[in-house]
Design goal:
homodimer; Rossmann fold; 14 strands; globular; alpha/beta
């Protein structure tokens, strides 16, 4: 793995290189996606079935689009019982953590008769997109569905592309059922996003669409944003390890590789104050790569977006970590908590040498759907917050309004909004 | 004002009509906006100055783009002192309310050495857009800036278009200064959004852009979403009044008109169980319209998007209110709190006959930047939440990881992610 001394120039180059992975740079597919959206909006089910035949080679119609109880039972009979057990154990942790995120309605009152507050209401309809293809990620199903369940969403539906026999992967079905999904529709791609955003004869319109997908899915989600809500656009996975001379090079190397294996756009970065550690990690990485099953992907991803950066001190190392704003940040230093207090930007922060990133992907409880590609500067992990919304509550008595009514009228008039002023004045007019 | 009996058909027609106002339907301007964004991204200041000359007829350069201390002082000398007083009184209420929205970092630990938590961090850079033109809304300046200040944002900068003498409206400057803005840049339109999203020599790149604007500003914000964060896309203003036979028709009429005066796309809807009230309100509206200064706008907006709907009972009235998901919802019924419990979708809910909507626009404290055009089904009022983000905290000891390490490895292997499994296994290998 390449070792680079951290300077202003190397930093700027790396930041620019990482941004190349942004889904904002795939404009060439926008026209295709926009056609699919328009077609599904106009022709509903007919368009959905046509695209599913074209892209997934599956003959789906109004009678077989919904996964049946029989198909769910069949899925349970083929998935390894030990895996179902692990899914259930992870689910307990994920539910526990997300329950702590719940926000509650509140109000505050004064004896003059004012009540101000904030009412928290779960979303009514949520659509979860689950990608198809050879890679199946039951962990992502849990991470998308659990916060919606904890928030109290009334209707959580799922869409996922069928294979050419019209079937959905059994592990996806088991994970969905365990997490609490009631309805699963066999449709994928931009056509699934369009169906969820506009509704069809078979698929209900939802208020929010969540879940990762390919570039067509990402562009479709971005395009329907505003008409419905979406989670943030998922980019390629990332890890940044902040380490000093006390870190175990073997652990650091293994953790860097755990992200590099995701895909060729994934990024793995070590920022360290120790050149000795840098060199040892580089060697460990080379050794591990030879024995790992996804060697080809890992090599490409490390060549494209893998770096070992040597910083002159921890302050400089922390500064670059904040600028990169990595999806996953591991801190393996003498005092990881002290370093953590200086971290502004990261999706999830892992502290100490036993907090390896896959622990968070699968088991600890916090969500593994995290802001990528620098968006941890302003976005948060998927959470219960994503499945609620708030309404302000305002209640004034005559006694409370009377002493301020002229102030409000003056403010409104200063903005030339005389009907606003009138709506206050009319309450105090003497007839 | 037209009176319509509420049926499935009238409801569907009204919902369809209201959606015509969506900023999703202005695709014709997308090419213009996308050119402006690309030009500012490539040519930075030079492009910004060129557009400001072209659109605002103002000669702005690197030396005069920033509002000076002298200009602020001049603004204070020309704004009516009584208005400054009202701004300060409103500010106290707005700050009080928003402080109650603050969220805090939390963690939870187990004696096995696990710590899980959520770290709350304010955004570092926020850009507030303030429209120029004849209409000046100091109240919107306060509503955009205060939640960012309360959240603890480090750098809050503002952009607003200059007039052709290169000056910014003094009321805007006073409101910005009072609210706590430190830097104000004289640039407007899509070019301002581009400058905030990408940064120029003069204007810093921000993490999030908030504030209303015209269609060019709205499209530019939507386009840069993902590269930076934005608040929700503002649509035309709306009010829905839910009233029974106990409501004062004069108050209802005045409140409907307070939204109708905003612009021709604004929507004012009364849903009532009382035909007698419907008729009285209609008469009161006609009387008020004659004496209000914005008569022309009001008449157009009522013709386009104004309705008095007569429902057969309160249950039906509430159901349609939830479907419309209005920005502002007033409840004027015998027991407004009982009705409120059944409201799922509204930006702000005003209870009782003294809680007129302009009280919320100017003075009560809750934010007046609210989800419009049905988006209250999934979006929330602008709040302190918009100016913070969260990071998950995960810390495990060897003791805590040991009993579950094989579970995690199995889960990872089931997803064919062997490097993930390896990063856990390496911690327990016997050398």
């Amino acid at each position: 793995m390449r070792i680079v001394e951290l300077t202003k120039d190397t930093k700027d180059n790396i930041l620019e290189n990482l941004l190349k992975r942004s889904p904002n740079n795939y404009g060439e597919y926008e026209a295709v996606v926009s056609d699919i959206l328009a077609n599904v909006k106009a022709n509903k089910d007919a368009a959905v079935f046509e695209y599913t035949l074209k892209f997934d080679k599956a003959a789906i119609n109004a009678d077989n689009i919904l996964v049946t109880q029989d198909e769910i039972e069949e899925a349970y009979s083929v998935v390894e019982p030990a895996l179902i057990d692990v899914i259930r154990k992870a689910l307990v942790n994920i539910e526990d953590y997300h329950r702590k995120q719940k926000q509650y309605s509140w109000f505050d009152s004064t004896p003059q008769g004012t009540i101000l507050g904030q009412k928290v209401t779960p979303l009514e309809w949520v659509g979860v997109y689950v990608p198809g293809g050879k890679a199946v990620y039951p962990s992502s199903v849990l991470m998308n569905v659990v916060p919606a369940v904890v928030a109290g969403v009334d209707h959580i539906i799922m869409t996922t592309p069928p294979n050419k026999e019209g079937k959905v992967n059994p592990v996806t079905l088991v994970a969905a059922k365990e997490a609490g999904v009631k309805e699963i529709y066999k449709v994928g791609g931009a056509q699934a996003i369009a169906a969820l955003a506009y509704g069809t004869e078979s698929i209900p319109k939802v208020d929010k669409i969540v879940g990762p997908g390919n570039i067509f899915v990402a562009l479709a989600k971005k395009s329907v944003y505003g008409h419905v809500s979406i989670d943030s656009i998922a980019g390629p996975s990332e890890i940044l390890v902040l380490a000093d001379e006390t870190a175990n090079p073997r652990y650091v190397a293994a953790d860097l590789l755990s992200q590099a294996e995701h895909d060729e756009l994934a990024s793995s970065i070590l920022v360290t104050t120790s050149r000795e550690l840098a060199e040892k990690v580089s060697v460990e990485v080379e050794n591990f790569v030879q024995v790992l099953s996804r060697k080809e992907i890992i090599e490409k991803s490390l060549n494209n977006y893998g770096y070992i950066l040597v910083a002159k001190d921890m302050e400089e190392a922390i500064a670059v970590a904040n600028e990169i704003a990595s999806e996953h940040l591991e801190i393996m230093t003498k005092d990881p908590y002290a370093v953590m207090t200086k971290i502004r930007n990261a999706g999830a922060i892992f502290l100490g040498e036993y907090s390896s990133e896959p622990l968070g992907d699968y088991f600890a409880g916090p969500n593994h759907i995290l802001p990528t590609n620098g968006t941890a500067k302003f976005f948060s992990p998927l959470s219960v917050d994503d499945f609620i919304k708030k309404s302000s509550i305002i209640s004034y008595s005559r006694e409370a309004l009377e002493p301020i009514h002229k102030d409000i009228e003056q403010f409104a008039k200063s903005e030339q909004l005389t009907a606003h002023a009138n709506s206050i004045a009319v309450r105090f007019e003497t007839l």
